[in-house]
Amino acid sequence: MTVTTPATGQDLAPVELVTCMIDGIEMSVPKGTLIIRAAEQLGIEVPRFCDHPLLSPVAACRMCLVEIEGQPKPQPACAIPVGDKMVIKTQMTSEVADAAQRGVMEFLLINHPLDCPVCDKGGECPLQNQAMTAGHAESRFAGVKRTFPKPINVSAQILLDRERCVSCTRCTRFAEEIAGDPFIEMFDRGGNQQVGTADDQPFDSYFSGNTVQICPVGALTSADYRFKARPFDLVSTPSTCEHCAAGCGLRVDDRRNKVQRRLALDVPEVNEEWNCDKGRFAFTYLDTDRITHPLVRDENGILVTASWPEAIAIAAEKLGAVRGKVGVLTGGRVTREDAYVYGKFARVALGSDDIDFRARATSREEGELLSSVVAGSGLGVTYADLEKAPVVLLVGLEPEEESPIVFLRLRKATVEGSTKVAAISSWVSPGFAKTGGTVLAAVPGAEAEVLNALATSSASLSESAADIATALRQPGAVILIGERLSAHLGAISAAVSLAEATGSALAWIPRRAGERGALDAGALAGLLPGGRPLTDADARAQVAQAWEINVDELPEEPGLAFADVITAILTPPIPDEVEPDEAAEDVEAQEPEPRISGLVIGGVEIDDLPNPDEFRRALEEVDVVISLETRLSGVDAYADVVFPVAVDTERAGSYSNWEGRVRPFGKVFKDAFTLTDARVLSMIADQLDAYIGSGEPGETRRELEALGAFTGVRCAPPSVSAPVAQSAAGRTAVLASWRHLLDLGVLQAGDKYLAATARASVARTSSATAAGIGAQDGDDIVVSTESGSITLPLLITDMPDGVVWVPGNSLGSQVNASLAVVPGAIVSIARGGAA
Amino acid sequence: MTLTPNLTAHWDEPDSYTVTGYERNAGYQALRKAFEMGPDAIIDEVKDSGLRGRGGAGFPTGLKWSFVPQGDGKPHYLVVNADEAEPGACKDIPLMLASSQHLIEGMIIASYAFRANHGFIYIRGEVPHVIRRMHAAVRDAYAHGYLGANILGSGFDFDIVVHAGAGAYICGEETALLSSLEGMRGQPRLKPPFPAVAGLYACPTVVNNVETIASVPAIIRNGADWYASYGTEKSKGIKVFAVSGHVNNPGIFEAPLGITMRELLGYAGGIRDGHELKFWVVGGSSVPMLTEDHLDAPLSYEGMEEAGTMLGTATPMVFDETTSVVRAVTGWLDFYKHESCGKCTPCREGTGWIYQLLHDLKSGTGKTKDLATLQDLCAQMLGRSFCALGDAAATPYPQALNLFRSEFEAGTHTAADDLFDPALSVVFSGVKTS
Prior knowledge:
The structure holds two protein chains of two kinds.
Chain A lengths: L16 E6 L2 E6 L4 H7 L23 E4 L6 E2 L10 E3 L5 H16 L15 H9 L17 E2 L4 E3 L9 H10 L5 E3 L6 E3 L12 H6 L5 E3 L12 E6 L8 E7 L2 E7 L12 H5 L13 E3 L5 E3 L2 H14 L4 E5 L5 H14 L5 E2 L7 H11 L8 H6 L2 E5 L3 H4 L1 H12 L4 E6 L4 H4 L4 E4 L5 H9 L7 H9 L6 E5 L8 H12 L2 E5 L5 H6 L6 E2 L3 E2 L3 H11 L14 H9 L9 H6 L12 E5 L9 H10 L2 E6 L11 E4 L8 E4 L5 E4 L11 H11 L9 H11 L24 E7 L13 H5 L6 E3 L1 H6 L7 E5 L4 E8 L6 E5 L1 E2 L2 E2 H5 L6 E6 L4
Parallel strand pairs in A: 1-5, 16-17, 16-25, 18-19, 18-21, 19-20, 21-22, 25-26, 26-27, 30-34, 31-33
Antiparallel strand pairs in A: 1-2, 3-4, 3-5, 6-7, 7-10, 8-9, 11-12, 12-13, 14-15, 14-27, 23-24, 28-29, 30-37, 32-33, 32-37, 35-36
Chain B lengths: L18 H6 L4 H9 L1 H11 L11 H6 L10 E6 L9 H7 L1 H15 L3 E6 L4 H16 L15 E6 L9 H8 L13 H4 L6 E5 H13 L1 H5 L9 E8 L5 E6 L4 H7 L9 E5 L19 H6 L10 E4 L4 H15 L5 H18 L5 H14 L6 H7 L1 H8 L1 H6 L5 H4 L2 H5 L8
Parallel strand pairs in B: 1-2, 1-4, 2-3, 5-8
Antiparallel strand pairs in B: 5-6, 7-8
């Protein structure tokens, strides 16, 4: 089994073409092409409002009327496919079309408030632009305009100005067709027709921001951006979203060195034209609570501002003292380039292979999966593959919450295509329900059991599961596993076996933007860049050559993973075996060396770790802590030196998305002088007399790409057998949990309108489990471990008995911080307020 | 031309709408014959009869039925459009009241022909008495074994659902009707796909007018030749004409197509005494108006086209010289503006604008340029709206302007009610004011 794209060449069937004439120009287009699209190919822009290439045609606005020879009336170019030998005349050559368009434009403007000077859309408004090209200079309308109170909220984030609306229904079609959240709809009729929501159901969609972007007028605006800037005052920079592993193309608009808004870019192979609200609206963190100067701990134990040379010198001195015993821990915000430099820094400057980018629950099994089949494997399963797949099986992955663009593609695949979606999960989430998929219910920890049953097509499978098992054996089938699966021993191995047994493709989807790139760049113990095993002679030679060092300067043995670094710090080293009588004589002299004495930490959020307190104890314990941070993160409390580093708007770089597709981005603020992680590391390395390059992203990328992917033999994928899944009953339950898309994540800090559209925190159990603790729907229930507890209102859900689900990091429900366990653990449950 | 009562033949019998009353007058004999003929022969027979849609568009009925793909494995549906809401049109409502069983028998035969097992009657919500009547009639037919499983031992199953609309003119547009019937917002859909391919619940569906379907039993019973012997070359058969307005004896007259308005006026007792014809509108309000000059034009699809208008629903409204044209067309526009569904720009915005212009002219506060604007706006709506209702809304005005321009010009200084006392217009013959 390999993580590769299923062969895509096979379905390149010849395309049937039709020939038509548009404005006297003959052209051939694939059959089914709409007139408006064909005209675009000729550079003829037929004006339009309701038309959107990714939404179904409605022909409602009538702006795109064109003349078709033989047709008595002008026809909407957005809804009529080009017919063979069709002769089409647009407004360029037809008076009928031109008059029709001008007539429609006149109608559109009579009730429009013409408040362009105070409208957010003014300057980038299709209505404004097309009024210039297809409108009359003066209005004949002298009557009374339609008025509405403005604006009204359709959600906390999205505001509606009904006076500006032209009833194109792009927003309502988006909500229904693309997002599957039909919470906005057209109400009333005639001139009073308006977009609205039901009284008790606001437009709380994770994708609501897209409606603002596709609104062809200024009717939909975001609370976040309203009245903040005029389009012509903004400087736009193409970028890549940092919030998850989807790799969405992003347009960042800034003014006066402040990001004003972010829009989705059209990247057909990745996010099409959409993005999620987190990607669009969560950017307040960029300039909130930033660290501006290096900090060093003085003799009184207080962090004080220091100059760069001073801070660099101190960091280098401290790290030099513990060389070979330093763990390098990075988080999800690192770019591919920064991760590469972290890896190089650890090995060359610190002589350590104890590096890991996975600031979260992990397992050795996951490390084996990543090393064997994911790292440096290039473009694997793609978004396009999801659309073509006969079946997509999700394990440990909740796409709408954890990888929203994957969700949009799966929805598209199921709505427009014939893809079936199945998930091994404890319950049918609202997002998953929108894909119309089948949930193969499993208690957390029992995933492997279900995977194995699918692999063997076991007779015990239910009818729907047997269908999935069959479909997985068809060409193009895909298994997607989320990073959460690492919490369940044996599940990843079982997924690998299932892929082998069925021939389906397997892809791993991390939650964070930087993870796949960090993996490919070698920021993982035992793994050099390009998926090169540290222990492979060829791999070592290639890397040593690229890094201009001797092979023996590379660490010999694979280092410790994230969790092992923490364990090594907290577990007292075992003394060397010595003669008992000798030991009794000189205990002091025999005190063994600790395995880890220093930590370099960049981008780690403590509460992302399965046991935050344990990590804090490790930070406390270790001698040297060097922190590279964009804002005070909690690590600083233990740090000897804190370096301020750049956020995405201040650096260039790239992320690899879950597909393995490199998604580069440029610097938004060209004159920002904040240093990147890589530049800081480079300077420390210089001080340590170890040259690791300049850390400039361009240089780093050239080096990384010149190195390329490993072509030799890799380690075998994991084959861990799963223990029997835990079960619980009565006052205990197996914990199930994942994170909501909109939650308490630090990159969403300060975005209050966004936070207001987050899903409410509830705890879920089956009715039997609820009955077991005497709780009813709506009662508070308490989920607890010895570390702490979470109290949430109960929502009785169709799910296996003996399981309780709570959101991972939402208001009132922070599993790591409060419970310090991972999903699959046994927790206590009780009715709140119960004596 | 003489009247030829067919659907209306037994309206004087108190139980004409019951199965018993209907059977007394050859009711349900056509159904028995239809089962013997077989489906395809029925479609051929209806094609041969020349029956065209009586809802206004005049599409050949048999041809429409033949578009339904056979053997496609999908359910087929018959939907009867009983959303009669056009100003002036009043023929389907009385038909359903008094000829309920004609409609039901027609539905069974039609559905048997194009292999549908479910029929729906979509009745406008404003006529609860008609809805109650049809519910009773359907119950009656079930009780007599004409509906349900294995009708008359033929092996054919057929069920009828009587559905009440919620009061929207747009739902008389067939695709909007289907959306409404599905429980969705009543707005027209893109065509293609046409209902015959993807209609109700995306299955092949025939949408027919009440009168069209009610005409079927007689055609089957008496043969296509009998039906085709009435009417004109292109407009065969018998039509229900509903004459309203300033006539002495308004009412429903069933006659062969091709009869003239002069003849119909004769049956309707002529223009009310002491008055003379000013203008008349043949197809409900949505067609260009006609005058004295057209009284001898045949009331047929092609005859009315030749006269510059459309037969429409063939429910002529007659107006005498007391009528203000401006007031009349403003009244219609009030209706269209109120009923515009809002989906497309020309109808949504155009009706609103024309509404303001006409009300200015009606109240004598119009501007001279408004006349030209009015004409332009109608041109900007005609042929550019999403569905035919946008066209309908814009149709009456250009002709009214042509024929009675001075009245519109007067609207720039004098209110219509000052020129034409509304009281005179509503006083009918035989009723005296003090």
